[in-house]
Description:
Elements: H1 2-28, E1 32-34, H2 35-38, E2 44-47, E3 52-58, E4 64-70, E5 73-75, E6 78-82
Antiparallel strand pairs: 1-6, 2-3, 3-4, 5-6
Amino acid sequence: MFKNKLKKVAGAIAVAGALLLSGAPASAAPDLTPIRDKYPDAYQFQWNGDNTVTVFFRDSQGKSYDITYTCVVVTNGTCYVYK
C-alpha cells in the first residue's frame, strides 16, 4: 500500500515537472522573431548551415551589401533572432 502511494506521488511530481519545463520556452518566445520578419526590406536570405543566415540588402543607389546573423533558435527550418 505504501509503495502504491509512493508511485502515485512520484508520478504526479514527474508530470508537474514536465509541464513546468515544457512551458519555459514559451515564455521566452515573445523576445524572438523570425529573421524574415525582422528584416522585411531584405531581398535574399541565405542559410549557411552553421546556425547563421546571411541577409542581403540594397542601398538607395542599388548597391548590394550583406550582413551575417547568428540564429538564437532554429525551429522547423526557420531562424529566430531577438527583436
